[in-house]
Amino acid sequence: MLDAVRTPFGRYRGGLSGIRVDDLAALPLAELVRRHPELDPADIDDVVYGDTNGAGEDNRDVARMAVLLAGLPVSVPGSTVNRLCGSGGEAVSQVARGIRAGDFGLAVAGGVEGMSRAPYVIPRPEEALTRSMELHQTAVGWRMVNPRYPETWTTSLGAAAETVAVGLGIDRTAMDEWAVRSHTLAHEAWEQGLHEDWVVPVAPAEGEEVRRDESIRPGASMETLGRLAPAFSPDGPVTAGNSSPLNDGAIAMLLGTAQRAAELGVEPLGEVLATAAVGTEPDRWSLAPVPAVAKALARADVRHRDVDVWEVNEAFAAMVLSVLDTEPRIDRDKVNPHGGAIAIGHPLGASMPRVVVDCLRELRRRGGGIGVATACIGVGQGMAVVVRV
Fold it and tell me: 137, 165, 203, 314: which could join 318 in a potential S-S bond, CB 3.0 to 4.6 Å?
């Protein structure tokens, strides 16, 4: 991992919502090339982006669109992958695999999501002269569900996470406490200037420049979160306050061989040791990081107790706490030291690359070590990336 750039993560219909998704995807890619004048962009073997929607302005391979819009040579290819919330992680995995195989000397991995601009879609009618049409939102969650699936598999993400957490005895207080922790740590990180050298300000055509992640609430407290109503069941513990928001954002990461890093005179952020993806029951996706982490650590020949920093993508506090309850070998004090997606935001395709880079950057601050970045994925998957500095 040679370098990484991301946009701030904009809140839903916030400061980045006026930017087309393909233009948003191009921003960090263009900045990544700009800050490395020693790099000939034509030497980039591929650009692989994660993106979960694909129904709007990110249609028809948004990675390739980003290459063209960022002004890279037309000879640079681009590929878009979709593993839902792990899409950007899949991009990292594919690029790392290509480098190990000798297919890539330099390549870009990343991701994008413009949830504010997700379109509504109309399924193709079954009859020639239909008298009605049904709109489906595409921002997040199930749509146009196949009736062959068991009903339990297609329950909403929040309801599924809540069911698992309640079954483990995790209550509203614990979830709200985790959310307050996330907002507090994320705000402190920005105040300490920890992100200013990799989060690039974005100036929309209209509106004010966006310099920071917009969903962070510095004043979040148990009192303020306690006023929020349950989101998925009448008396359930999951609320909007202890869930990740909908966001817009993009990230690009330059990866390459040690030889190419030396030729460019770039000191690497760190290295990817192993990646892994797993499947679980679709309604128990919130626990999928547990086997994903175990699989990735085994591939890297690393034990849980040897991990110095854990970055767990916070889809819901219910999900993070379920993982920590199920896998006690993960040291809670080493998890998300500068906040997580509940505060920072969760633009789906860009989320997992963000936790990978945050993990590497924190390890560098500590003088090195081993880290794990992991994410739960809807429809019953999980992914983990083991890194070393």
Answer: 165
H or E segment to which residue 184 belongs: helix 172-191
- Helices 317-326 and 172-191 meet at what angle, rounded to 10? 110
| Class level of CATH domain 3-118+245-388 | alpha beta
Phi, psi angles (nearest 5°) of residue 26: -75, -25
Q: Residue 178 is encoded by which pair of tokens?
A: 């985790």
Strand-pairing partners, residue 134, are none
Q: Could you tell me the pTM of the whole model?
A: 0.97
Say which residue the tokens 């690039």 belong to: 200
Q: Which of 183, 187, 338, 346 is catalytic?
A: 346
The pair of three-digit structure tokens given for residue 255, joined into one six-digit string = 């990866």
Ramachandran class of 181: left when φ > 0, alpha when ψ lies in -120 to 50, beta otherwise: alpha
Q: What angle do CA 92, 289, 324 make, to 5 degrees?
A: 135
Residue 376 designated active-site: yes
Helical H runs in 126-171? 157-167
Q: Which pLDDT score, from 0 to 100, does residue 237 have?
A: 98
**In terms of Cα–Cα distance, which of 328, 273, 338, 270 is closest to 304?**
328
Q: What is the mean pLDDT of the chain?
A: 97
Which spans in 327-386 are helix H? 341-344, 348-365
Q: Which two tokens stand for residue 173?
A: 């207080």
Q: At what angle do helices 62-69 and 21-34 cross, to 10 degrees?
A: 50
Helix (H, G, I), strand (E, B) or coil at 270: coil
- CA–centroid distance for 11 within its chain: 14
Report, as an integer, the average pLDDT of 279-301. 98
Tens digits of per-residue pLDDT, 218-233? 999 999 999 999 999 9
359 annotated active-site:
no
Tokens of 66: 């980003």
Domain ranges of the chain: 3-118+245-388
Rounded Cα distance between 301 and 280, Å, is 23
Q: List own/partner pairs for 40-44 with CB under 8 A and 24 or more apart.
A: 41/72, 41/73, 41/76, 42/73, 42/75, 42/76, 43/105, 43/106, 44/72, 44/76, 44/106, 44/107, 44/108
Q: Which of 85, 183, 187, 359 is catalytic?
A: 85
Asked if 199 contacts 354 with a C-beta cutoff of 8 angstroms, the reply is no
**Per-residue confidence (pLDDT) for residue 127, from 0 to 100:** 84
Q: What is the mean pLDDT of residues 167-191?
A: 98
